[in-house]
Amino acid sequence: MNAIWSDALVNHIAERKTDGVRVAFLSAIRADFRNGHCYFAVLAAPDFTRTVFAGEAIFLFFVQLMENFPLRKIYFETAEFNAAQFAPALARFAVEEGRLREYEYYNGQYWDYLIFSVSRETVERRMAPLVRWPMHVSHSDDPNEGEK
Fold first, then answer.
1. pLDDT class for 1, splitting at 50, 70, 90?
2. What is the CA radius of gyration of the chain?
3. What is the β-pairing status of strands 37-44 and 109-119?
4. Domain range holding 32?
5. Is 119 helix (H, G, I), strand (E, B) or coil?
6. CA distances (Å), origin 8, targets 66, 85, 93
7. d(CA 38, CA 120)
8. 52-97: pLDDT as tens digits
9. What SS3 state is found at 70?
10. How many domains are there within the chain?
């Protein structure tokens, strides 16, 4: 659990506002303010994978990162087999900046590893208007907050 907190700029837990059900754990990691970027990781609850709730949680998180920190870009990485589930959002909001060929072995074959970015301009002009603020996002310096 400590590894999640050790390199984090900020960690959030997104909950559905109507009933407090946890939608996703979101983390901004490896912040580099000199160069204006950080990396992003998300773990959506199984019932919310590929849903509008997870998408809005991510958009809200990106908007909050850009509003509160001097970032130009948010980077994220994934294996190619995993990127298919995000294809519509990737095509609309992200730029592929890197590809490591045949990097990861999974299910009997080697897959490319992809590096994407989302720019401040994309967050402000294309993501922020889509956020309807249906989530409650909590954050804390206490790694045990969610267990209380």
1. low
2. 15
3. unpaired
4. 2-147
5. strand
6. 16, 25, 23
7. 12
8. 889 889 999 999 999 999 999 999 999 999 998 888 889 999 999 9
9. coil
10. 1
Amino acid found at 45: A
Helices within the chain (DSSP H only): 2-6, 52-68, 80-83, 87-93, 120-122
Query: Between vectors from CA 77 to CA 2 and to CA 129, what angle results, nearest 5°?
Result: 95
Asked if residues 116 and 94 have their Cβ atoms less than 8 Å apart, the reply is yes
The pLDDT of residue 28 is above 90: yes
Give the CATH number, domain containing residue 142: 3.40.630.30
Prediction pTM value: 0.83
- Give yes or no for a contact between 131 and 8, defined as CB atoms under 8 angstroms apart: no
43 vs 16: CA distance, rounded Å: 15
Q: How far apart are CA 22 and CA 72, in angstroms?
A: 29
CB neighbourhood size of 123 (10 A): 22
Alpha carbons 83 and 38: distance in angstroms, whole number: 19
pLDDT digits over 89-139, tens only? 899 999 999 999 999 999 999 999 999 999 999 999 998 888 765 444 444
